[in-house]
Amino acid sequence: MERFEVNILGCGAAFPNQRHMTSGQLVCVHNERFMVDCGEGIQAQIWKFGFKTANLNHIFISHAHVDHFYGLLPFVSSLDLIQNRKSPLHIWLPEDLKEPLEYDFTTYCKLSFPLLMHGIDTCKAAVLYDGRNMTVESIPLNHRTPCCGFLFREKKKPRVLLPQKCLALGIPQTEFGRIKAGADWRKPDGTVIPNSELTTECTFQPRSYAYCSDTSYNPAMIPQIQGTTLLYHEATYLQSEIDQAEKYGHSTAAQAAATARAAAVKQLLIGHFSSRYDDDSLFLKEAQAIFPNTIASNEGMTVEVV
Ligand SMILES: [Zn+2]
After folding, report:
1. Are 25 and 286 in contact (CB under 8 A)?
2. What's the CATH number of domain 4-157+204-304, 3.30.1330.90, 1.25.40.10, 3.60.15.10, 3.20.20.80?
3. Is residue 302 pLDDT above 80, yes or no?
4. pTM higher than 0.85, yes or no?
């Protein structure tokens, strides 16, 4: 099976502490890499854990809180210095963050590659990137400032050719490419053999990864993430501090798990842990009581989307 995995660079809330760095992930889909959020020090995390940045052409920033984007300038600058990069780099970010960051990059970074900034309307779900193997959609979230998550979806694979059947019908091999692409076959007597008789459904089940940080409990997003293979959902607080979660536009571990259960996802990954707690197992215990297939993020870990 082709690679689809998430590298955790940082999973703490607000500021770095002894246990966690601020938000950042690398999402690897087949031969492409994407960065999701880029808190301070994220570039150091990449080198520390030996993660790779080859084929990284798109960075997605969820919102304009510093723990989600303050590592962006140093990281992008290092791509210039270390990789001698020439190919364009796309940064997708909420509209309110676009102009300030354009100013920062223009003022402080003299890059030798094109930097293309794309503003996101965080109020609506939209396809941001449509690649050969997968798409990336925005997921409207409910936070104190315009904020969206990101949904990575593998595309369905085309139907599979039945070569023996084609040969038995006298179809030349030079036509196999067209039939794989969906064409019917017209026999010399004019009879049409539909493509559905020359190919079979691919058994491959497309996988998906939803990144949802930061957000208060947000049932509105459940239809969009229904059946997702892996859901990352913030769990800044425990249920005992639900009043704080509501006040600051965050979720509890129990609310993350309730979302995973309602959306019938396959696996839940929680993170964005507040430093007020000194034991991450409390988050895991609370979430697993509602959604057993939950794991807790930690820096340096790789989670396969399967
Ligand atoms: Zn935030």
Report:
1. no
2. 3.60.15.10
3. yes
4. yes
